[in-house]
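Late entry, written up from scratch paper. The run itself happened at the end of the previous shift, but nothing got recorded in the book at the time, so transcribing now.
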Amino acid sequence: MEANVYPFAARNFVDAYANTDYRMPLHDKQLDHFYVSRDDEGSRLELLKKEIRWGAERGLVTKFLLSGHVGCGKSTELNRLVREIEQDQETRDNLFVVSYSINEILDLQGVDYTDIAFSVVVAIYNKLQEFDIAFPEEDIQKISDWINKEVEIFTRKTLEADIEVGTGSGLGKLLNLLTLIGINVKGTGQKVEEARIRIKKRAPDLRDLVNNIINRVKETSGKNVLIVIDDLDKLPRMEALQVFKEEGPFLALLDCMAIYTAPVSLMYELADSPALEPYKAYPVPMFKVYEKEARKVNERGVSKLEEMIYRRVSPELFEEGTARRLALASGGVARHLIKMVQDSCLYCAAFNIPRINDNVVDWVINEFKKDFSRRLGHNDYVTLKKIHAQKECHDIENAWEYLQSLCVLEYSNGNYWYDVHPIVELLLQERGML
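Output as recorded:
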């Protein structure tokens, strides 16, 4: 019976380890094998899908923010959304989708809108290559000329070599310049800042260059364009505020539809800020393991997390109740759950333990406790105790850091509420603070 219910689940710890790569979002066939829906709360993502379809038909340029905790499953939901769009004939006929991870192109430290702008150009070029469509030579030259006016020499970190802007021609020259984030201005300190300032003074020019390329794609394909940029939620705090708040108009004024991922910590910090007004926000909800009141277990949410485990690893490799313990300990963070399962499988394989038992789960939880405790001091525990009691983060000075580090988790049940991660709760209990 279990083979029929979970036909792709691993039945040994070696395969189970491979099935639980928590670092990568689900894609392609993995979405069919391992994906678990979020039930009614996932209906928000169905609304997003409908807006994209209507926008494709009517040529709209709506911008969306897909927000949520790091590790909650945003990238998987984006992959699923893009796949469904590309599999729907009507939408595919109306929409040219350019989807990529900013983390694969850029070094996220020091990122600003100029880096993102050029990453869009590179992503569009790559997508056109897939369809054997030529990248307009005159647009390549315009971008190259623009860069050449602003900065004399770029450094490509990955090659640890200087690339002269004035050398080369055509697409080869552009790609030398634009393996961007790979590419930073040569030098440090004031030289870098002077170059950044010079570029930022011509922000409208840069936006026009990118929009010209987007509009050329629209003309060539006869379709509206959707830019999907994943992993912006992994930007450090200052870079995130810079991109979405200080430089927000650039992303908002691209002449296409766009979906950007954003950290839940940013949404919390900019809750009432005009910086978010140009965007329609769609939160990716957590799998809820507890109710807000009285720490009552949300059985529906826990069941979903157990299904997420069993789709990857057969129930026969777990002793009774251990998958549930892992689900509760994860706090509903999908990445933490899958890492806990992978660590459990590794431990069992290393020490010839036939099934994941309570002792194995204890070891995994203790490892997570070590990770959390390294970054927390006495004052943090005092603050986290307050958040746990009040179920909110209002007037908490370090709320951003707690949300970004997953020490504090955001849940929704009509209204948003907050609680400490279950592992952090264990640390509070051990210190006699609960």
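The two ends are 43 Å apart (CA to CA).
(Scratch paper discarded after transcription.)
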